Amino acid sequence: MELKAIGLLASSFSPLSVAAKIGVSLGIGLLVGLEREWAHKDLGVRTFAISALLGMLSALASLTFAIVCLVGVLIVIAYVNWHSVVAERAPEATTSVALVATFILGVLTGQGHLFTPIASAVVLTGMLAWKAELQRFAGGLRTEEIRSAVLLGLLAFVIYPLLPNRFVDPWRLVNPHEAWIIVVVIASIGFVNYVLLKVYGTRGIYLSGFLGGLVNSSAAAAELAGPLGEGQISADVATAALLLTVVAMFARNFLILLIFAPTAVWSASIPLVAMAVTALVIVNRARHRAGNTTAQIHLESPVSIRYVFSFAVLFLAIEIVAALGQRYLGDSGFLGISVVGGLVSSASTSAAAARLVAHRQIGTSLAGTGVVLTSLASAIINLPIIHRRARNHILSRRVAMLTGMLIVVGIAALVLSHL
Fold first, then answer.
1. Whole-angstrom Cα distance, residue 159 to residue 329?
2. What's the CA gap between 197 and 182, in Å, rounded?
3. pTM over 0.85
4. What share of the chain has pLDDT > 90, as a percent?
């Protein structure tokens, strides 16, 4: 019996499985440890690598032994922090917590998990490496931005589970549960882009314009056109930045389609990529002529009660009208609604197209065409906004000509993709 038990124990620790776990645990420890070594901390790459390896080995032995080893890690942390206090240095609180987390990730690796420890290690390293950016972002937070984060949590974890997961109308048009998850995801995308704008928007107007376009392309275009009218930036800089807001809008609509209707991505990818590449070539030429500037744009948080309520109502309205248009007017009715919807909100229209694909009310090719058309309409609606804000006829004509070029490229690519 004892020999049989030993044989079963040995078979559960096959060399290939153990080698993979050793490699993953060392990779996790080295990843986090290299960042700590780069930050000149007392606990560096070797300590973190050994901690992750120890966690993995202790998990192979038993859970009880893993707990004993965790106590040992805590003793090491206590000694290091005591040494820092004696030397009149600040305690290594963040590094200490990171070491404990790395040990636990090693334990998970030893238990056979892969995605969780690897993904967590990447996130952990990112949070450590982005210390300055996170501190700058947190220090610049306003009350309404904190409320936005709280509201986003309320939308996702309180309201969403309470909504009925069924059609509430006899025409099978509105499913509150499915509609609300789209509202939450779009709001989350907008909020993440807003955070990126707050953190990285000071690095130049081009990055600021792109990130602003991810949040709200029309609002970003208005903000960029304002400094031109006031003589703060040149026409070349404004042209490049304005085109980047359009490229960002293309990318955001593509992402929405990818999340909610991945099968429809291919039909929209060729025109959107063709237009984006064309715009980036023009941006690159304009940027080389004008250089960069420290100007940046400031947008309101895209997560507020007013914004979310407006987006939800607009999304439902576009979804209902688009479904009815396709149901009673055919494909041309849906495409017409896509164009009109793009003049109001291309994000809402793209999400509505994705929802209709998910319910098999329209085909993937039609949905992709609708997203391309709504993106073009959104680019067109920015032109009067730019003209009104910039009060510069030269810039208005230049942006209108370039937008027209993008429309021609997009339509040509759309036609070719359907041949």
1. 35
2. 22
3. no
4. 48
